[in-house]
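Hi R.,

Here's the chain you asked about this morning:
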Amino acid sequence: MENSFEKIVSFTKRRGFVFQSSDIYGGLGGFYDFGPLGVELKRNIKDSWWNAMTRKRDDIVGLDSSIVMNPNIWKASGHTENFSDPLSECKACHKRFRTDHLDDKTKCPECGGELTEARNFNLMFRTFIGPVEDSASIAYLRPETAQGIFVNYKNIVDTQRVKLPFGIAQIGKAFRNEITPGNFIFRLREFEQMEMEYFVKPGTENEVFKQIVEERMNWYVNDLGIKKENLRIRYHEKEELAHYAIGCVDIEYNFPMGWSEIEGIASRGNYDLTQHQKCSGQDLTYYEEATKERFIPYVIEPSSGVERVFLACLCDAYTEIEGGRTTTTESVKETEFLLKLNKKIAPIKVAVLPLVKNKENITAKAREVYNLLKGCFNCQYDEVGAIGRRYRRHDEIGTPYAITIDFETLEDSAVTVRYRDTMEQKRIKIDDLISILKKEIYED
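And the predicted structure, written out as tokens:
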């Protein structure tokens, strides 16, 4: 990929997408804040996922479970014992590294000093409930959202009249005390997951698994607009599988640092519900009326990180054009930057630009158009700088439509709509703007 990672990282701060958390205090590794444009892009990605998973389906319901849960949940799921990475420490500089990420597992990559033998480091953040910090009050920040779904499975079956197969979807924060967070927002200590547990009758899991893999790939291409050639499916080898998994695939994106996972799709069997039934003493079997059978369902789980998908969307859309672009109405001589985001997820959908800002009748009309549109789209009113500079500014942050209010507008009640990717310009009546833009953004 031609775009360097450093340029994209710099761009995200310069344009208000992502900031280092606690920046004025020197930052905090593995934690990032999302600025005005970043929070809009992130929300649009989550909304797209939620719509695809729940609003457009009759067989999936939603959930929002708590971040801190009974610590026995993590014992049952295996996280207390198994959720760890190998850690090595340099005997000279005392820096710590994830052992399986090192080429030479005996020598420090920073100072060349000798490394200690690897030891397991549990990734869960520990906290305490109540005023006394003792072993009886220990709790954890959840390392995944999935267990909140499993422990609410019985509540949902009992209250929602769901029938197999059905799913439970959730978007929420998760926390992992990564030894070496890195690659910007790719590997974080605080992140958001988009997870869905799809419960099926044993024996049908392989067919459902293939179907879900195809659906998830289609979401990235059709809903987010990511280039198909930058995505691939990688099947896990047997030795890679988690202790609970029957099978697993990763959907990978071709980042500037190479192919890396943005979503895992696992066939989890009935491990989780079986463990929670055993440890809680609650009956988590499903009764199938048609066959009069009781059994514990199998589960297919697509799980993706919001920040990783966010980063993939930025990398895929970020475009540099040496020497700029030229049309019959515009030309750009310097390097031009475009963020060719899918219109559905662009942070700002429409920029409203008065041709000049020192003409009261022009700015008043521009404000009128802005107020008309902002109830339907995320809009931005921009009157600072020359009109060409404002076009470039919105090209760079991914705004698909720039609407210019000029002197002709006062006479014909029409505006000039400029298209980000082609620089094409059309005259459209103000009365028709909302219907045309809605169709182009959400129906095309």
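The mean pLDDT is 92.

Let me know if you need anything else.
M.
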